[in-house]
Amino acid sequence: MARIELMTPDSWERVRDLRLRALQNDPDAFEMTYEEEVGEGEAFWRKRLAGACTWIAFCEGAEAGMVTGAPMRGHSDAAGLFGMWVDPTFRGQGVGVVLVQGVIDWARAGGYARLMLEMGEWNQAAGGLYRAMGFVPTGVVGTLPEPRAHLKEVELEILL
């Protein structure tokens, strides 16, 4: 069974390394690219961790995935789920459920009315996970930045 651990700014190297691994393994699942983040230094990663809640999932001591929860810009009543990723080795083992539930619990405890996320329209596995956990489409569809603007993202939310 996976367990999650909240990271602190002092965990910046662990978070950086896992995030870069995620960007390399599944580049189209993220707005930012490996090339944009690989050169960022300690100050960038510490600031990122100080401004949000990032959890890493562990399975039998191995880093199995990560997710971030933060206030959703432009929506005072909503939190956002960002940067969700499960290492391919651990997919289908409930790691995603544990990560998403951690963000749901955090958002509820923070008094948010809803939790929102954007996901690649093409990502059937992620869509299945989010729907099974109660997320529904909002009707908002966007795209990734160039040169990946051909990839559509859909917005989902769950009422808390």
Summarize this entry quickly:
By secondary structure, this protein is an alpha+beta fold. It has helices spanning 12-25, 34-37, 42-50, 95-109, 124-132, and strands at residues 3-6, 53-59, 62-71, 78-86, 114-120, 136-143, 152-159. The chain has five helices and seven strands.
What does it look like?
There is one protein chain. The mean pLDDT is 96. Helix 1 (12-25) packs across helix 3. The radius of gyration is 15 Å and the shape is globular. The protein has a single domain (3-159), classed as Gcn5-related N-acetyltransferase (GNAT) (Aminopeptidase), CATH 3.40.630.30. The protein is α+β, with helices and mostly antiparallel strands and 160 residues long. Helix content is 32%, strand content 33%. It has helices at residues 12-25, 34-37, 42-50, 95-109, 124-132, and strands spanning 3-6, 53-59, 62-71, 78-86, 114-120, 136-143, 152-159. The chain is built from 5 helices and 7 strands.
Beta-strand proportion: 25-35%
Q: Count of helical segments?
A: 5
Poorly predicted spans: none
CATH-defined superfamily: Gcn5-related N-acetyltransferase (GNAT)
Residues in helices, as a percent range:
25-40%
Radius of gyration: 15 Å
N→C terminal distance:
25 Å
Average pLDDT for all residues: 96
How many individual β-strands?
7
Q: Quick one: CATH class?
A: Alpha Beta
Category by helix and strand content: alpha+beta
